[in-house]
């Protein structure tokens, strides 16, 4: 069997989960394909149709931001639904969500996004790792390692269920009520997040890591000024991967020596 997972990862949590899922699938003697949906990938309509047609199951993997999936993944799923359309035979779809505190986005919401595509949600799992936003509390690496171990087990159960053709729908619970409330506020906050970003000129070396790594192409350098544009998906990648910690939020520069940036579970 072949499993193709389209994924978006802000600073590494989801990429780790997708890589682990692929490793498990391949160890079980099947094929796994991981496809980033970053703007740099430039997937054509023909490529997407071909990948969906060639796979036995299609996956969508992403972090959860404020009880919702990131705009970049929401837009991509809408694109896939429009390209694939109704199929003579339903094809299995699965979702892998990563989160730090609570996952308030559930399988019912994912089913709504897939409606009319011929992709039937047969598996939905949540993998708790950690938050990718710098805070006053240092990262608890021991806790993260334990969560990674639990995540590997959950991804193994996901793989077994998909291979056997069994449903595995996780993610129902009271936390979804919280999600229903905060999802009304999150889209506006994310849409305006780019307005809070800036660059501290005294620390910036103009290495352009932020420009080249932005998944939505929302950062540019014009003359000596960095421009942050609408389309930002609030993934924190520019903030966390700036080599000198020069990205500011609301004009505030957080000292990277005191508050190390999060760059994924494997570091």
Automatic annotation (TrEMBL):
It comes from the Bacteria. InterPro entries: 4Fe4S_Fe-S-bd, 4Fe4S_Fe_S_CS, EFR1-like, Fe-S_Ferredoxin, Flavoprotein-like_sf. Residues 195-224, 232-252 form the 4Fe-4S ferredoxin-type domain. Keywords: 4Fe-4S, Iron, Iron-sulfur, Metal-binding. This is EFR1 family ferrodoxin. It comes from Acetobacterium wieringae.
